Amino acid sequence: MKLESLEELRVFAQIVESGSLVAAARALGLPPNTVSRRLASLEARLELPLLHRTTRSQSLSEAGRTLLGRARRILDEAELAEGALRCDAEGLVGLVRVGLGSPLTRPDMLSCLAALLEAHPRLQIQVRVTDLPVNPIAAGLDVVVVGGLPNEQNLIARKLVEVRPVLAASEGYLARRGVPQRLEDLEHHDVLRFLMDPPLTSWVLYDDEGEQHVVPIEGRFETDDGRALMDGLIAGLGIGIASPRLVRATPALRRVLPRYTMTGVPLYAIYPASGQRSARLQAVVEALQRAVTAADEVALAEL
Q1: Does domain 166-263 have CATH number 1.20.120.140?
Q2: Which fold has domain 88-153+269-303?
Q3: The 3-state secondary structure of 192-225, one letter per residue
Q4: Any idea where the domains of the chain sit in the sequence?
Q5: pTM for the complete prediction?
Q6: What is the pLDDT of residues 7-43, one digit of tens each?
Q7: Residue 246: enclosing H or E segment and its boundaries?
Q8: Residues 217-271: pLDDT tens digits?
């Protein structure tokens, strides 16, 4: 690939990441006219529009969405090649783009990254919050932490930890509505549900002897945002599912029906195959693994 073509891809990826040509120009330290010319040159050579632009917004065309994932891989490969030829005395260098579910963005989790950034002054970490499954390549991310394995063959899945969610509610909610003593009591309580299609109508719970119970649930509060779900739990909107770590760390919450847990939910770090050769990406993944493992081991021991 010609060097000018690589630079055009870099400009295109930065425009998408920054949200506009002007913001991309600032990020790249280039005049806006130069950024515009390089994008136009790339579109002219491909004979396809990559962005739909108006005076107020921009969005990727179908061709742009296809190119973005591949451009990210090409740029990452170029950066890996450059890094392999350069012996850097300052340790890890460059940007790692991380996708995390909102429950993982609390201070006790993000603190795992502080020591890494302190030890490597030229390392940068960008966190994007997403509670829905995403393909890291299509989303322009280096790694996402999700529950469950991906279907795509070109992705690597590294298991970080298996979390066993428990049932919890706020002290305020329990004071108003009473503490459930049996699974059947859940019929008379509001249950907080993750917004799904079709709607979630039951929980599968396991007692302390390993027996499975399918429990019908109803509730008046649903959301597709994990942080909003946890905030609703703390605010007293109903009974919900939470990690043991969250219950331990939140004085307003109390575990209910302690004989029962959900099945274990494995958390995976998902990244492109090229990420195996990226020292900075692997360092971030290892830091996240240490944090989630330590947090939930402590929480389960204290419940």
Answers
A1: no
A2: D-Maltodextrin-Binding Protein; domain 2 (3.40.190)
A3: CEECCCCCCCEEEEECCCCCEEEEECCCCCEECC
A4: 1-78, 88-153+269-303, 166-263
A5: 0.58
A6: 888 899 888 878 888 888 887 888 999 999 999 999 9
A7: helix 244-249
A8: 988 999 988 788 889 999 999 999 998 878 888 899 999 999 999 988 788 898 8
